[in-house]
Structures are given as C-alpha cells and as structure tokens.
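anyone seen this seq b4? input:
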Amino acid sequence: MDINTDKIKELADLAIEKQLAELIVQDGDKSVTIKLPGYNLPHVIHQASGPQQVVYTPPAPGPIAELPSVSSHTVPVETPKPHSDDRLYKITSPMVGSFYSAPSPDSPPYVAVGQNISKGQVVCIIEAMKMMNELESEVSGKVVRVLVENGQPVEFGQVIMLVEPT
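predicted toks r here
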C-alpha cells in the first residue's frame, strides 16, 4: 500500500477537529485507521460514496475508555492542543448537504487558499435536497484553509473554511 503521509495528516486533523474517537477510511482492500485517545466508542456512522467508504465514531460523554490494541495500519495521533486559530473567522455550513467549491465541475473554485475575499462574496455552494445554496462570506479577509473537499458531505455548523479577517 502506498502511504500518502499528507493525506493521513489531513485525516488526523479532521479526526481531531471533529473530536472523533476513531476514523477509518477504506478504498478497496486498502484502509487506514486513526484512533484518538480519550473518547468512548459509543456508535459508528457509515457513509458510503462509490468504492470508498468512510466510517467514523463521534465522541461520547463519560469517563475515558481504554482503547483496544492498535492494528498494524493505525496511525497514532496526539491529542489536540490549543493553537492560534482563535483569531480566525470560521465559515460554517448553515445546513446538512454536499459542499461544492465551484458552480460547475468545469469552473474554477469560488475561492482558494491565500485569496482575499470580501464580505458578501460567494465562497461555495451547499447542495441540500437538489437545491443549490450559495454561501456568502460574512467577513472580508484572507482564506487561510479550506477544510472540506469538493463533493464531500457537510453537517449543520461544520467549519468549512478559515478566514483571517482584515
């Protein structure tokens, strides 16, 4: 299995951001499991999209559970530490749906990392029940990070972009 450490780091960051106890990504016969210490394993949510399957377990309240032994393809992850993202504005999804970075597959994305945006500028589309909803920025600033991949499902309130306000 070819190991793409950048992709694993991205998955680990996602697990930390969402405070997931476990994140399993499968693509055919290849899989990667990321387990975070300090969370119980209450239930698993499955989401299938073509040949790739993502399985994750959200955190549960209560005492810290003892995690099972680590499999050979598990990547240990440090617990999150506070960092300077407090100064960044978080653009969140106003609904459950699918994230689209561009108006069509042939079009360039609305915004890119490093780009300056204006208040009221469309930054993405959230599709919900066949309705395309343009999401506008509530601040002017510089796009620091896009946390969602094109076509990925998003939850209500999920942070999808970080903007450094100007």
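The radius of gyration is 17 Å. Residues 5-76 form one domain. kinda curious what u guys think
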